Amino acid sequence: MNEDRRLFIKTTAATAAGIGVLSQTQLVHTARAMTAKVLKESMPKRTLGKTGFNVGMFSLGGEATVEQRSRQQDAAEIINRAIDLGVNYIDTSPTYGGGGSESNIGTVMKNRRDEVFLATKTHDRSYDGTLRLFEQSLKRLQTDHIDLYQIHNVRVNDDITGALSRNGAVRAIERLRDEGAIRYIGITGHRDPDVLLRGISEYNFDTLLLTLNAGDIHYKPFQKELLRTAVEKEMGIIAMKVSALGRIFRDDGITSMADALGYVYSFPVSTSIVGISTIEELEENVQIAREFSEFSGDKLARLESLTEPYYRDANFFKLHW
What we know:
Blueprint: H1 3-18, H2 24-41, E1 45-47, E2 54-56, E3 58-64, H3 72-84, E4 89-91, H4 100-112, E5 117-122, H5 127-141, E6 146-151, H6 157-163, H7 169-178, E7 182-189, H8 193-202, E8 207-211, H9 225-232, E9 236-240, H10 257-265, E10 271-276, H11 279-291, H12 297-307, H13 311-314, H14 316-320
Parallel strand pairs: 3-4, 3-10, 4-5, 5-6, 6-7, 7-8, 8-9, 9-10
Antiparallel strand pairs: 1-2
Helix pairs in contact: 1-2, 3-4, 3-11, 4-5, 5-7, 8-9, 10-11
């Protein structure tokens, strides 16, 4: 019997004991509503930096099944189930699936927008290009506002220079914020921590989406000066590439998602985003977040040592993307 079923039975019994006489239909409806509330509240939360938003530790990334236009129904089932389980942060981008991710998420947002802190991105560094991308994202996402709009995939110093220029993307995002179309401004990157460090030093971004996994320490680590600076600036810190798209897993290395996620959650991050292929993956990851307790220094060091022989695979996005 799965956890939801056990909880439903307990809730039904408690409802029947506590409410007097109800019809069977009313009883079932009330129990399901209470079960959904308990499931949502069981997601552990952390503060998303100075935004003050209480974000679930596990968040949904917009890749994998969610980005595939040909699997809209499967994507919608994953998104709806995630929200039912207490996931309240969804991250996407117009580049994921050529807009497929935003479109699939939009099919759910048209009915459940107020349950989610919604984040998307601009990969254009210019003012006009960013405004065009934003309007396209709103249409696909079927919403009139975005909670977090991010400068996407910052790789080299020219990306920072362009985005922060007088006719750059940041100025466009500031305009959107002033108009109430977005709430917060973020920056993302997975290649060079020094470039991101320059970005958050030169502009007061609200959030930072950075790579972090058990192999990070061995090559251009994001977990050192960049993470420390983001914490000092009280930024909302979102971790990605937790499993390095599955490349973190080896029979003689990291063998479980519990270790992969637990490693990341032991750092001062607000949440982690993971692309999901199946409902089963989603439920496993949510359960890991619910059961998490901080890893000891010895365990973190052991996991890092396991990844050292294949650190290039664990950091492939720094080398090739």
